[in-house]
Design brief:
CATH topology of chain B: Rossmann fold
Organism (chain B): bioreactor metagenome
Oligomer: heterodimer
Structural class of chain A: alpha/beta
CATH class of chain B: Alpha Beta
Keywords (chain B): ATP-binding, Nucleotide-binding, Transferase
Largest interface: A-B, 28 and 26 residues
Shape of chain A: globular
Domain ABC transporter (chain B): 5-231
Number of helices of chain A: 10
Enzyme class (chain B): transferase
Shape of chain B: globular
Helix content of chain B: 25-40%
Number of strands of chain A: 9
Number of domains of chain B: 1
Order of helices and strands of chain A: EEEHEHEHHHHEHEHEEHH
GO molecular function, one term (chain B): ATP binding
């Protein structure tokens, strides 16, 4: 219990801009930008100043409108995107050394051993023409496994865990429904036992009963494996079900953070209030 | 008796930005709750009763004042300024909250709902199942309902499930937010018996009741709230 109050992941002042910026927009002041876009030079400030902490076994919700920088933040954390500025440190990696400053090779190592990622679009996370089980093997090989029998067993166990029938595991995910593809992605992300799972809009576009399956699976993973997760969603109901704490993003900034029920019942920021009052 | 919860000059107002309005819900509330005591809060609708409970549970951020809770893990802690992570811990292990609404994961049956409360606090599956079974029997939730989803439970059944879920963790402090609202007289009496039982087991409780007559004889103290103020 002593580690209860020490964060496992710390993100500080993460910034990601697309474009070089000009004298007009470089200070990122709201009066010089339109939302997160510079009208003079066309630079987009997708994440301006994002800082938060993630604790062990916790699910952190990230909500915000389209274009608020949620996915960019996730892609930065998974090293899909090069950050412009900021630091990220993991307690279990080199005593909290900034991982953004590591070499590409080290980043690959971190990605394959410390993180699991589930993208909104399964095409990003899966090779659609490899079989489901090969997709899992791909991640296991990347993490350094070489024993085929062990990988095959692990793959079968994981796919069974996410309710993919055994007789379909040799089929490529392109034959699967959206919900199944999402579950294969989750199995793949879990394959290397990562301490942190990044989930980007995993239930968006799934029908309600499949959505309930996926939510149930996520909750089960949290309970049984004690994995910390960052769950990005624009669906407040999903975040309410899953997350202990929630941060609200707007135009590349975190404008509010708190316990999930407090964000929903007593929102402080004008935008959060608008968002919560829009809830059906 | 030692104090478990002390509220000092609690005020809460809501700022609604879209209409540029400030709503004052609670003003300068102070009282304390001893260990093993049961205090009932009474008052009209909209007088700010729930606000107090929600400020204690941190569903609302208090605007002013302090709420000191004597935690087993952290010692004396101010619920207004405690870290979110500490509140998460307290909610999981020490403080229970029961409202008239049941908020659960979709497609989870009654037994699983109670069981999961224990699994979440790191208990094993066998122990959790055993305790969940015990408490549902104890609260007389019909056994034929255990494997069904609570969507079509009656108000009284939902409430008993809700209380069972909060109680199975044996919280040091139980907050009851109008648990008897929308129940018929027979169910209300059932809840009363339940609360009497909890009290005799030593649970400290703070409850809101619309119709306090039902709780007479069970409450150690009554607190009257009117227009956000203590009477």
């Amino acid at each position: 219990m002593k580690d209860f109050q020490t964060p496992i992941l710390v993100v500080q002042k993460l910034r990601k801009q697309f474009g070089l910026g000009c004298d007009h927009c470089r200070d990122m002041k709201p009066e010089h930008l339109e939302k997160n876009y510079c009208p003079k030079c066309g630079t987009v400030y997708a994440c301006r100043d994002v800082s938060f902490e993630l604790y062990e076994g916790e699910i952190l919700g990230v909500v915000g409108e389209s274009g608020s920088g949620k996915s960019t933040m996730m892609q930065c954390l998974y090293f899909d995107q090069e950050v412009t500025a900021g630091t990220v440190s993991l307690r279990s990696y080199k005593n909290g050394k900034n991982m953004f400053a590591e070499s590409a090779q080290q980043k690959r190592y971190i990605r394959n051993n410390m993180f699991g990622m589930v993208y909104q679009n399964p095409i990003m996370g899966l090779n659609m023409s490899f079989s489901a089980i090969s997709n899992i093997a791909e991640k296991l090989i990347a993490a350094g496994n070489r024993n085929v029998a062990a990988m095959s067993n692990r793959g079968q166990d994981l796919l069974d865990e996410v309710n993919i029938p055994l007789f379909r595991i040799k089929e490529p995910p392109k034959n699967f429904s959206g919900g199944m593809q999402q579950r294969v992605q989750i199995a793949k992300a879990l394959s290397n036992n990562p301490p942190i799972l990044l989930l980007d809009e995993v239930t968006t576009g799934l029908d309600l009963s499949v959505q309930a399956n996926v939510l149930d699976l996520i909750k089960k993973i949290q309970r049984e494996l004690n994995i910390s997760m960052i769950v990005v969603s624009h669906d407040l109901a999903v975040v309410r079900m899953l997350a202990d704490r929630t941060v609200v993003m707007l135009n590349g900034n975190i404008i509010e953070s708190g316990l999930t029920d407090q964000i929903l019942e007593d929102p402080q920021h004008p935008y959060t209030q608008e968002l919560v009052y829009s809830l059906l | 008796m030692p104090v478990l919860l002390e509220i000092k000059h609690l005020s809460k107002s809501f700022t609604i930005h879209s209409i540029n309005k400030e709503i004052q819900a609670s003003q300068d509330i102070s009282f304390s709750l001893n260990k093993g005591e049961f205090i009932g809060i009474v008052g009209k609708s909209g007088s700010g009763k729930s606000t107090i409970l929600k400020c204690i549970y941190r569903s609302y951020l208090a605007s002013k004042g302090e709420i000191w809770y004597d935690s087993a893990e952290f010692g004396l802690i101010n619920m207004v300024t405690a870290k979110e992570r500490q509140i998460t811990y307290l909610r999981r292990y020490e403080i229970g909250y029961v409202s008239q609404f049941l908020n659960v994961m979709p497609r989870t049956n009654a037994l699983e709902i109670v069981e999961q409360a224990l699994l979440d606090t790191g208990n094993g599956i066998e122990y959790s199942r055993e305790q969940a079974t015990k408490i549902l029997t104890h609260f007389e939730l019909d056994e034929s309902l255990w494997d069904s989803y609570p969507n079509n439970f009656s108000g009284g059944e939902k409430l008993r499930l809700n209380i069972a879920r909060a109680m199975v963790k044996r919280p040091r402090l139980l907050l009851l937010d109008e648990p008897t609202a929308s129940l018929d007289n027979a169910s209300k009496l059932r809840v009363r018996e339940l609360i009497e039982q909890l009290k005799s087991e030593g649970t400290t409780m703070l409850g809101i009741f619309h119709d306090i007559e039902f709780m007479e004889g069970v409450c150690d103290k009554q607190i009257n709230i009117s227009q956000g103020k203590l009477l």
